[in-house]
Amino acid sequence: MEVKIKKKGKTRKYRVIESWKEVTLEKWIKLTELEGLTQAQETKALINTLSDIPEKLISKLSLPDITVILSRIAQIQQEKNNELVKVIEVDGKEYGFHPSLSDITLGEFADLEHFIKQGVQDNLPEIMAILYRPIVEKEGDAYIIEAYDGKIDVRAEKFKKMSAEQVESSLVFFWIFVNEWSKITKLYLLDQKEEMTSKMLEKVSLKSGGILG
User: Fold this and answer.
1) Beta-carbon contacts of residue 23 (< 8 Å; ≥ 6 apart)
2) In this structure, how many other beta carbons lie within 10 angstroms of the beta carbon of residue 39?
3) Fewer CB near the last or first residue (10 Å), C or N of the chain?
4) Exposure string (b/e) for 12-34, b if CB count within 10 Å is 16 or more?
């Protein structure tokens, strides 16, 4: 979307995003930090993040122009694709989403849990760097990703270039898995607790029987 701003007799053209794919993870994080601002501050920050209009000029836009820009951004958000993007490309290199979350290792889950507890919003690049890893072998739609070694710092920095669309879809998929995994884990732990309690009661019963006998 092109926006024309006239200043000191000169008209300059600026650009507002055309697709949600243009919104990088880094920009998306900035958008999530707008909570708590006044309506005017939030609007200014939103346009500043999603366009190349200089911040000092945004305040000089007319309210009708602001309305048109915000309406277009809202439309772009509604048009975004929420389907999981399994393979992404960053700096010319392909990365694959974890092919089977049900086979996730304890090390992977422990690191994910750590970053989630530290704050999802503040650790999105790190979370993405665990879920997406370099593809080492690929055949059609099938692929194998690099084994997890916990070394994600460099990849996390690169993943700030991921699109918000890719991040949102992968997070939705991941949260569904986490919820299901939590239910299974709770049921398993409950079964284990009941089994341990039963064994303890059995031992106590045998000891009591021996003493009374």
Assistant:
1) 17, 31, 50, 163, 164, 165
2) 7
3) C
4) eebebbeebeebbbeebbbeeee
Contact 84, 97 (CB under 8 A): yes
pLDDT at 56: 85
Rounded Cα gap, residues 16 and 46, in angstroms = 11
Residue 109: the pLDDT is 84
Q: Are strands 2-7 and 142-145 parallel, antiparallel or unpaired?
A: unpaired
Query: Helix, strand or coil for residue 3?
Result: strand
* Cα torsion 78, 76, 83, 115: sign: negative
C-alpha–C-alpha distance, residues 54 and 41, integer Å: 15
User: Could you give the strand order of the β-sheet that contains 132-139, starting from the edge strand earlier in sequence?
Assistant: 87-90, 93-97, 132-139, 142-145
Which residues of the chain, if any, have pLDDT below 70? 7-8, 177-213
The pLDDT of residue 188: 42
- Of the CA atoms within 13 Å of residue 148, those in its CB half-sphere come to 23
Tokens 């099938």 appear where? 142
Local structure of 146: helix, strand or coil: coil
- Which residues lie closer than 8 Å to 165 by C-beta, 6 or more apart? 20, 21, 23, 80, 81, 82, 85
At how many degrees (to 10) do helices 39-49 and 63-79 cross? 60
Strand duo 87-90 + 93-97: pairing: antiparallel
Q: Looking at residue 11, what is its pLDDT?
A: 78
For the beta carbon of residue 195, count every other beta carbon within 10 angstroms: 10
Structure tokens given for 180: 């299901």
